[in-house]
């Protein structure tokens, strides 16, 4: 049975994180993987090990960038490879993050029953790199709210999403002119054209890694987010508040931001 979904995983020198991610994919149907090594030197992708871990759960496709070029370029190489194949759906997962059992089945079942929805994220447990629970991230569920609140921050957990591959003919690949915020720019483009929602259930564990892009390049990420908002700005409450909110975020560390979120969500 051929897979109708492929999960795109960018890889950069995180062998144990990749193993955790691969092991977490537990579905009742085949799920193929597209793994792109972004020029690893110390821990290059061990394809044979990945095949051994994943077993008969699906096919592994892989590619390697000759040198480290950043996650947006790794993701785009993966999407280009995927578009050469016949997949209806594309999912995302990052090394270290984990799907809950049956996550993709719930998303695909929902998308098949709601054809107008082209992208579907989920809620997630946010945990630190020592496996301590921080809070549950519950992004807006319905499209009308998402269209407004995307001007405040990304309304999707990037490695939670599943989307139809067909929309890429209109959206294109991840934009490369928004350093550390390629996902936010990508989602903004999708939300403006297609109905997008979040499945209101915690279906994955998202690890806040101190070495992640969101941690190490936070100011660059927020500046890129402001650029996206300005390019999609209209005179209204949410775009205006979003600009002010993101400017203020330049003054707050991610650690402080997570502490505030954990207090609010308790």
From TrEMBL:
<dbReference type="InterPro" id="IPR029044">
    <property type="entry name" value="Nucleotide-diphossugar_trans"/>
</dbReference>
<dbReference type="InterPro" id="IPR001173">
    <property type="entry name" value="Glyco_trans_2-like"/>
</dbReference>
<keyword id="KW-0808">Transferase</keyword>
<dbReference type="InterPro" id="IPR050834">
    <property type="entry name" value="Glycosyltransf_2"/>
</dbReference>
<protein>
    <submittedName>
        <fullName>Glycosyltransferase</fullName>
    </submittedName>
</protein>
<dbReference type="Pfam" id="PF00535">
    <property type="entry name" value="Glycos_transf_2"/>
</dbReference>
<feature type="domain" description="Glycosyltransferase 2-like">
    <location>
        <begin position="7"/>
        <end position="160"/>
    </location>
</feature>
<comment type="similarity">
    <text>Belongs to the glycosyltransferase 2 family.</text>
</comment>
<keyword id="KW-0328">Glycosyltransferase</keyword>
């Amino acid at each position: 049975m051929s897979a109708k979904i492929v999960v795109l995983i960018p890889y950069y020198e995180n062998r144990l994180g990749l193993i955790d991610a691969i092991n977490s994919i537990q579905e009742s149907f085949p799920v193929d993987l597209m793994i792109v090594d972004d020029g690893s030197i110390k821990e290059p992708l061990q394809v044979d090990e990945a095949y051994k871990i994943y077993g008969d759960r699906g096919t592994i496709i892989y590619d390697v960038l000759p040198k480290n070029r950043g996650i947006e370029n790794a993701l785009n190489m993966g999407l280009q490879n995927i578009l050469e194949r016949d997949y209806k759906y594309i999912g995302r997962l990052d090394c270290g993050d984990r799907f809950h059992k049956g996550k993709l089945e719930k998303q695909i079942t929902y998308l098949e029953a709601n054809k107008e929805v082209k992208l579907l994220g989920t809620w997630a447990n946010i945990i630190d790199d020592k496996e301590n629970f921080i809070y549950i991230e519950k992004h807006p569920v319905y499209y009308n709210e998402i269209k407004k609140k995307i001007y405040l921050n990304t309304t999707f957990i990037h490695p939670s999403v599943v989307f139809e591959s067909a929309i890429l003919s209109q959206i294109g690949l991840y934009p490369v002119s928004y350093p550390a915020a390629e996902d936010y720019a990508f989602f903004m483009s999708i939300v403006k054209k297609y109905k997008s929602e979040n499945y209101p259930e915690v279906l994955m564990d998202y690890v806040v890694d101190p070495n992640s892009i969101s941690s190490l390049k936070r100011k660059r990420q927020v500046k890129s987010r402001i650029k996206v908002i300005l390019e999609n700005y209209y005179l209204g409450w949410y775009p205006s508040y979003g600009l002010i909110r993101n400017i203020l975020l330049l003054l707050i560390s991610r650690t402080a931001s997570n502490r505030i979120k954990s207090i609010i969500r308790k």
